[in-house]
């Protein structure tokens, strides 16, 4: 199975979303890792320990467990030699594992007091006007999820070079924003939970999709692309509690991110200057990271005020 066939296999799973960059794709179900690509012929798949043991025992040339992954429910697959049926079994097992986890957590440790916490219902949070703080993480209580479930987890291997480092940080903040939106219904995503600000999590998804499109205007000398959502503040003002609006927001963000990534992939020299204002590629990449990082800080507060969930 080649990497394109593997993409098609995982993309076909219900509820799975592909993120990451070209050559480093990640697939998640409700923000939980299914698989991630490490290079053109290798992927890491999230499987239960018993399934991993069977795969390694029956297909030792195709599946392996590096020391760094020994304590994690993960297996490395060599696509060049792996049996298609075994790969399908691994991917389906990963999907079942993450789907069985359900949409929300059970009792968890409170990251502030260390004592038991619980997720409050929306109605209870409104009655008390303050949600109880909680986290889904159990290994490191100041995190959003445990390492095995964190799509940002690179297993301690840092990227090589300045360009790869900048791209890695951008990917991490993009994933963080999506994770902050995980597990919420339409009303919660659209809720302006830190008044008098008009910001909402849904508004942030729309705003950053619009920003991605606008950044392409920075690097072109041709006609400018039209605004994605129209006039000033339309990205936030139009963030309504409607499922179609939410679906469109995610689709637009996926499309605009991919389009900007594709254009910048043609300019790998960080010192190259682009567009009418001759902006350096390095400056644009740093600005993109800054924009996502700033709004991830907003997302922290918005989410905590909605249902009390906290974590990096």
Highlighted features:
44% helix; 312 residues; 10 strands; alpha+beta; globular; 10 helices; 6-stranded antiparallel β-sheet
By secondary-structure content and strand pairing, the structural class works out as: alpha+beta
* Rg computed from alpha carbons, rounded to a whole number of angstroms: 20 Å
First-residue to last-residue Cα separation: 36 Å
Shape designation: globular
Order of helices and strands: HEEEEHEEHEEHHHHHHEEH
Please bin the fraction of helical residues.
Answer: 40-55%
Describe this structure in words.
It is a single chain. With 312 residues, the protein is an alpha+beta fold. It has 10 helices and 10 strands. It has a 6-stranded antiparallel beta sheet, sandwiched between helices. β2 (24-29) and β3 form a beta hairpin.
Short characterization:
This protein is an alpha+beta fold. It is 44% helix and 13% strand.
Secondary-structure map:
Elements: H1 3-11, E1 16-21, E2 24-29, E3 32-39, E4 42-46, H2 49-58, E5 63-64, E6 74-78, H3 84-99, E7 108-109, E8 116-117, H4 122-128, H5 162-181, H6 186-190, H7 201-218, H8 234-237, H9 243-264, E9 273-274, E10 279-280, H10 281-307
Antiparallel strand pairs: 1-2, 2-3, 3-4, 4-6, 5-6, 7-8, 9-10
Helix pairs in contact: 5-7, 5-10, 7-9, 7-10
């Amino acid at each position: 199975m080649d990497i394109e066939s593997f993409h098609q296999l995982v993309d076909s799973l219900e509820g799975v979303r592909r993120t990451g960059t070209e050559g480093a794709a990640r697939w998640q179900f409700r923000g939980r890792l299914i698989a991630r690509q490490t290079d053109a012929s290798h992927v890491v798949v999230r499987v239960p320990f018993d399934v991993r043991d069977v795969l390694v025992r029956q297909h030792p040339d195709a599946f392996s467990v590096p020391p760094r992954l020994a304590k994690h429910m993960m297996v490395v697959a060599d696509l060049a030699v792996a049996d298609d049926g075994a790969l399908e079994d691994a991917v389906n097992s990963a999907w079942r594992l993450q789907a069985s986890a359900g949409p929300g957590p059970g009792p968890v440790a409170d990251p502030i007091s260390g004592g038991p916490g619980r997720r409050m219902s929306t109605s209870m949070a409104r009655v008390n006007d303050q949600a109880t703080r909680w986290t889904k993480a159990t290994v490191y209580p100041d995190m959003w999820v445990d390492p095995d479930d964190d799509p940002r987890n690179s297993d301690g291997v840092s990227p090589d070079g300045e360009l790869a480092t900048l791209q890695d940080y951008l990917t991490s903040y993009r994933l963080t924003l999506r994770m902050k939106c995980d597990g919420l219904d339409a009303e919660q995503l659209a809720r302006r939970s830190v008044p008098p600000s008009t910001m909402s999590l849904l508004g942030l998804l729309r705003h950053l999709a619009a920003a991605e499109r606008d950044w392409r205007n920075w690097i072109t000398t041709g006609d400018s692309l039209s605004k994605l959502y129209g006039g000033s503040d339309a990205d936030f003002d139009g963030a309504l509690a409607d499922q179609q609006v939410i679906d469109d927001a995610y689709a637009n963000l996926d499309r605009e991110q991919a389009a900007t990534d594709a254009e910048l992939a043609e300019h790998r020299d960080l010192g190259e200057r682009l567009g009418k204002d001759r902006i350096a590629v390095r400056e644009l990449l740093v600005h993109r990271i800054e924009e996502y990082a700033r709004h991830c800080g907003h997302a922290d507060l918005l989410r905590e005020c909605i249902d009390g969930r906290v974590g990096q």
